[in-house]
Design brief:
Layout lengths: L4 E6 L18 H16 L5 E13 L3 E17 L2 E6 L4 H14 L9 E12 L7 E4 L2 E6 L15 E3 L4 H13 L8 E6 L2 E6 L3 E3 L2 E3 L11 E3 L4 E3 L5 E10 L11 E10 L10 E9 L3
Amino acid sequence: MPITALYVRHRRPKDYGATPGSTTITRRAGELYRRVLNVFTGSLGGANDADYTFVGGGTTEPAFACGALLLSGASGVIGGIINGVTLTATHGTTDILDAALIAAVINASSNALVQGFLTSNNLGATLTLTNVLAGDTVDICGYRFTAVAALPTVNRISGYDLGNFSVAGSDTADALTLATAINQRPGLSRYGAAISVAGVVHLMARQYAFASPTFSWPTGPGVPANNILSNAATIVASGASFITSAKVNLLCCVPGVFGNAVTVALSGTGVTVLGTQTRLIGGTGLDSVSIVEAA
């Protein structure tokens, strides 16, 4: 039968009658139900100091589609074509600055085919996978991802394998499973997204602060630390955090297959589309999606 699970991450511990280190709950059903319901309602109302709430389901759950433009040796008028709308900026001093300028143009667009469809920034990083072994790990913003020989064939709604990614295939296949694990990871997926191309995982910030012309990692209660740490030589990070880059992140604002209908193309010299895709990708296929962001 279909199953939907609601998860809440909260800072303060709750007393469900379980002995520390034990999975046995000693409270009666009525009392336990009341306490759990209080946690959910308090989180939804912002009273529980919860970071977020989210729902899990099957592999057809909606996700946020995304894509990117890459800049290298850009010159002249450069940018992208989103849903047939050309959005460009004039080349500045560096590709990194150009990426920020283009992202700002996209965010400022009032065109009905762009506004409300996309958000953009140039904060990112990459993870390059080479012959990753089971047990190898990488930490992204405090969330650990562990390579396993194969994902267990269990009901993934249990959250049993959240943070695990399969290394049963090629580097390209392994990168895809890591990108999927990142996108379905509760908490992290609120702040970052990932796309894999030929064994490389491209990380993109979903949340950001902006002081023209610079994008930066957000700050505030519940925001994870901006850090990336590979614990294995088989996973090489481009840097120690999400930083400004020559990549224009294109992140759909609405989850679901709707995002896969957003077209993307390059405009100008020195601009390419990540993965040569013609539309945003990843609108479905996750096992968990954020539905409420409690204060």
